[in-house]
Specification:
Elements: E1 6-13, H1 19-35, E2 39-42, H2 49-58, E3 60-63, E4 75-77, H3 85-92, E5 97-99, H4 103-117, E6 121-125, H5 131-137, E7 145-148, H6 151-156, E8 165-169, H7 175-188, H8 202-215, E9 220-224, H9 230-241, E10 247-250, E11 266-271, H10 277-290, E12 292-299, H11 311-314
Parallel strand pairs: 1-11, 1-12, 2-3, 2-4, 4-5, 6-7, 6-8, 9-10, 9-11
Helix pairs in contact: 8-9
């Protein structure tokens, strides 16, 4: 029998599900238990095909817009948040709806409203078209939120009054890239007001820090996550920036490019905040089938955050 080559897998921790994703998935499962199938979900509850398919099998129906939902079935809003117009329309139609927006995203919404009430125009650092960005910008009237994606974008915005500005950020951005954009904003608009505490969520920050901790000792990094998952794609970028040139996003073990793995001795494995641990185990098993694997856990933080599900799901009836 051919002897397997030795390989060390450095398993980043924290990785995978965050409290907001955990809560959102639980909300769909509890809604199905309470009201039976079908339960409608506006947009993918979280950006992970495996999770979405699992919920679809249980009776969740995923749609992009509210007008695709019937009046008489419950609808859930995804963890990314929705513009204010969406719950307003659901109320008008007298629908049962449950908001699964991550509480850390809701915190940014509240922050934007507070600044708007104080007469400040908002600058949002985020990715155009991402559901979280659409949801956050949709909290305020048209034109009240200016979007910047890069340092270069900062020079192109034309605020109403440069002395009356505040900034907020998408919660799943690269910590380092965002710091550079914030610095550019502060250089151009010295009076700009920032959040009391960083908008980038603890889970995004922790997962990026864990990747940085392993990047220097690995030949390759695999990030388990979906192509439309912002926080997963940022982990790939963080891996490359921290010195691991071969950093790749894979949805599942069957996407691993084994030819690219030839001759390597060490691989880092992490997972985006919407990827379940079962997919991490699947990747580890795929390596064990081909190599003599040693798994080393590299833990840079411990997470014990938990968010309650909405009261409507905890009440009987």
């Amino acid at each position: 029998m051919e002897q397997k080559a030795p390989l060390t897998l450095y398993l980043a921790a924290p990785r995978g599900f965050c409290a907001g994703v955990d809560r959102a998935v639980k909300i769909v499962e509890m809604a199905l238990q309470k009201w039976g199938a079908p339960v409608y979900v506006r947009h993918e509850i979280v950006h992970n095909k495996f999770v979405v398919e699992g919920l679809r099998d249980k009776g969740a129906v995923f749609v992009e817009e509210l007008d695709e939902c019937p009046d008489d079935r419950p609808v859930i809003f995804s963890a990314h948040g929705v513009p204010k117009s969406v719950p307003a329309e659901a109320r008008r139609r007298e629908m049962i709806f449950v908001d699964a927006t991550c509480p850390l995203v809701s915190k940014v919404h509240v922050e934007a409203e507070r600044h708007h009430a104080a007469g400040l125009q908002m600058v949002m650092i985020g990715h155009a078209g991402h559901p979280e960005v659409l949801g956050t910008m949709g909290q305020l009237p048209e034109g009240e939120v200016l979007l910047v994606e890069t340092v270069e974008d900062v020079t192109g915005i034309a605020p109403r009054d440069p002395a009356r500005l505040a900034f907020i950020t998408q919660t799943t951005l690269s910590v380092d890239d965002t710091a550079a954009i914030v610095a550019a904003l502060q250089a151009r608009f010295p009076a700009i007001v920032g959040p009391a505490k960083e908008d980038i969520c603890y889970a995004t920050t922790n997962r990026q820090a864990a990747v940085k901790a392993i990047a220097g000792r690995i030949d390759a990094l695999l990030v388990i996550g979906a192509p439309n998952s912002s926080n997963s794609r940022r982990l790939v970028e963080v891996g490359r920036a921290a010195g691991c040139d071969y950093s790749q996003l894979v949805m599942r073990a069957d996407q691993i490019d084994w030819r690219a793995m030839q001759g390597i001795r060490s691989v880092g494995v992490t997972a985006g905040a919407s990827a379940p641990e079962v997919l991490v185990n699947e990747v580890i098993d795929a390596f064990r089938a081909r190599y003599d694997v040693t798994v080393e856990l590299v833990e840079t933080a411990r997470e014990n955050v938990e968010f309650k599900v909405p009261r409507v799901l905890r009440e009987p009836g």
